[in-house]
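Structure tokens please, single chain.
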Amino acid sequence: MNVSIEKLDLIQQILLIKDEKLLKSIASLIQTKRKSSEETEGWEELPASVRAAIEESQRQMETGESILLDDVLEKYRKR
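Here you go.
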């Protein structure tokens, strides 16, 4: 599948999403990826354990396993 078709497919999928939290997570992931691709300098200087933790966090965001910071803060403010 070429990149243009993949982009169009992704756009179509995003247009069907009604879950605001999921949309915010996707937007955050895209911003993070774009920023990281622009600022790749220094990545190799990070310890392997830090790079692995970042990559795991990104994987969790992509699979919906992450929790939004606002949700965590709200939970602990109630205590």
